[in-house]
């Protein structure tokens, strides 16, 4: 009989150890998941920032591309104007060359007439003409005609040569403008290539961001599942002890889970609720002076930094006080992160009533008749 009792006792003890070990395993898993969630959130945020930076670079490239296109369009306009000027010069040159040919033809005809008339002797012209003035007038006219034609030819040749030089200048200008246009087109093509690369990089970065976000959501689901088991175990222990849940409400305003709050804690966690309670309800300034290390177990270590930052005189004590923050350093029931709550009442039997968040699945709770030492080492801050 005694042997059976010892066997039953051993089994019960072993079962309790297994339950405790299972519970601790769940806490460790949740802590690991919490760290993974934070890390993947950071990675997702980094990718978001990177995508934002790349978007800025893309906008800058698009601006440069648009500006370069404006330059190309302007150069196209200048090239067209220059070509029109060249065409006009060519037209005038051709017109002058036509005039030159006519003048040269007229000159040739005049020279031929002069030559023909020179075959007649002056004496013959003199005696054959009825009037001496007629001979003089005819000779003068031929000489004047020759001089005039010669002068016109020289003017036309000079004007044509000037037009040809102007045409060459315009050709050089067109070549220069075409060269500038080609340079700008090459520059624009390079910019477009860079933009395409940036677009690909941005899409890849956004895809990486989404993969991290998807992983965060998956980890959150796993954490919710494990947390539900932890909260279920807490409720079992709560029902089996002297503690009780009150039916009060908090007024805590944040509905999203694990979003940054104004005091650098995560919403709907015990730390965010305690910081909100002090800052909003009590008007006592308190913030996370150790980002990344603001776990509930570290709150006693943040007293000095908060005093320095806000000119306060908070202190750490072992004696409870209404409105004080109670900080547990961590146990199998509070997890390795610890837990904080607000002291709402001090009972005659030495227990306290606390208000808190996330003792039960990201919810507000008001626990009565709590024995602080049941949850490991603790301290009060006020």
UniProtKB/TrEMBL annotation:
UniProt entry keywords in alphabetical sequence: Coiled coil
Record has Coiled coil as a keyword: yes
Peptidase C51 domain location: 245-382
Keyword Cell membrane in record: no
Signal peptide span: none
Coiled-coil blocks: 44-99, 142-236
Domain of life: Bacteria
Protein name: Peptidase C51 domain-containing protein
């Amino acid at each position: 009989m005694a042997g059976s009792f010892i066997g039953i006792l051993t089994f019960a003890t072993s079962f309790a150890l297994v339950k405790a070990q299972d519970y601790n395993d769940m806490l460790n898993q949740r802590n690991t998941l919490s760290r993974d969630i934070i890390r993947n959130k950071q990675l997702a945020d980094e990718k978001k920032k990177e995508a934002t930076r790349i978007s800025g670079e893309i906008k800058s490239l698009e601006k440069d591309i648009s500006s370069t296109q404006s330059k190309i369009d302007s150069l196209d306009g200048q090239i067209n104007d220059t070509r029109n000027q060249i065409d006009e010069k060519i037209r005038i040159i051709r017109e002058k060359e036509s005039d030159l040919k006519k003048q040269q033809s007229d000159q040739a005809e005049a020279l031929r007439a002069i030559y023909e008339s020179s075959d007649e002797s002056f004496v013959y012209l003199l005696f054959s003409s009825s009037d001496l003035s007629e001979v003089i007038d005819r000779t003068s006219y031929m000489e004047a005609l020759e001089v005039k034609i010669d002068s016109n030819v020289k003017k036309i040749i000079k004007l044509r040569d000037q037009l040809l030089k102007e045409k060459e200048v315009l050709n050089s200008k067109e070549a220069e403008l075409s060269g500038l246009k080609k340079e700008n087109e090459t520059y624009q093509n390079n910019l477009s290539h860079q933009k395409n690369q940036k677009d690909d990089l941005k899409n890849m970065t956004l895809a990486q961001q989404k993969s991290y976000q998807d992983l965060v959501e998956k980890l959150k689901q796993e954490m919710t599942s494990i947390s539900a088991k932890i909260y279920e175990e807490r409720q079992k222990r709560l029902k089996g002890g002297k503690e009780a849940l009150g039916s009060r409400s908090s007024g805590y305003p944040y509905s999203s889970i694990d979003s940054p709050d104004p005091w650098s804690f995560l919403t709907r966690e015990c730390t965010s609720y305690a910081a909100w309670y002090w800052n909003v309800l009590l008007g006592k300034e308190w913030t996370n002076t150790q980002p990344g290390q603001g776990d509930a177990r570290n709150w006693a270590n943040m007293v000095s930094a908060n005093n320095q930052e806000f000119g306060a005189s908070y202190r750490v004590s072992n004696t409870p006080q209404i409105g004080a923050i109670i900080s547990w350093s961590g146990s199998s029931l509070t997890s390795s992160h610890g837990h904080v709550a607000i002291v709402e009442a001090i009972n005659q039997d030495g227990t306290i009533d606390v208000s808190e968040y996330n003792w039960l699945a990201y919810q507000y709770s008001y626990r009565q008749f709590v024995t602080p030492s049941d949850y490991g080492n603790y301290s009060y801050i006020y």
